[in-house]
Design goal:
globular, four-stranded parallel β-sheet, GMP Synthetase, Chain A, domain 3, alpha/beta, Rossmann fold, three-stranded mixed β-sheet
Amino acid sequence: GFSKIYAPMFRELAPLEEYRKFEKVLDRLSRFSGVAVAFSGGVDSTLALIAALKALGPHRVLAVTALLPVSVPGEVEGAKGVADWLGVRHEVVEVDVMGIPEFRRNLEDRCYYCKREIYRALKDFASSEGYSVLIDGSRREDFEVGRPGVKAAGELGVLSPLAEVEIGREDVRKLLKFFGAPNADKPPESCLATRIPLGEEITEKKLRLIVHLENAVKDFADVSLVRARLRKGEEAVIEVFKEDIPKLVECREDLLKAAEEIGVKKIYIDLRGYVMEEHRLQEVA
């Protein structure tokens, strides 16, 4: 159960500095009659959703998740699981970003056009359900690096209460662990479009290749995080956490077979291991 949200006795056990910031978020949200939360199921939007529930109660909060053609398989189901654990109403809105030429073109502004369409769709849906305020889980670092999603959110009037009070990545993790959130240790995730080199068109076929390869790695190597980055259309570079690299070598024959099934001729393993998305230009979202 999620008793720590509503039981004031747990306040004394909270990490002090981080909880002071969190209380500022509660102050900001408590002035609204209700809010919708752009909820991906990731750690940042989970904390934003917890804040909304604590400030307003479950009957004045709506969690809304965008389902995209570039969503990682299982992402929406994961969001639903967290929403169920929190006891909040959860809705899914399909957003067809593949219909946006500027997105498919896959230049450096790709994320901006995608996020703008997502926020527009979520805001429209929330409004139709009686929620005029939409918040997201953007945090301090998102504003510091100038992520395109921040620009899109600002243009559409989406609020970012975590960032407003300087809550950062480590604050989010500590607070989620305090609340006992089931996804507190969830690895970072990014959309499938980030696996396609900038400047190469995003197509349904490429997305299918990526999903096939990433599913194969998860099935055969039993890893918690994988990125299959396409190169030249018929090659792929596989990234996992550094400690999981030996698992890829052990199942190399299975992976090669899975790649051949879909026309991927060569697979490379990135020996550096997975690098956080925030340090990759093409993964800024």
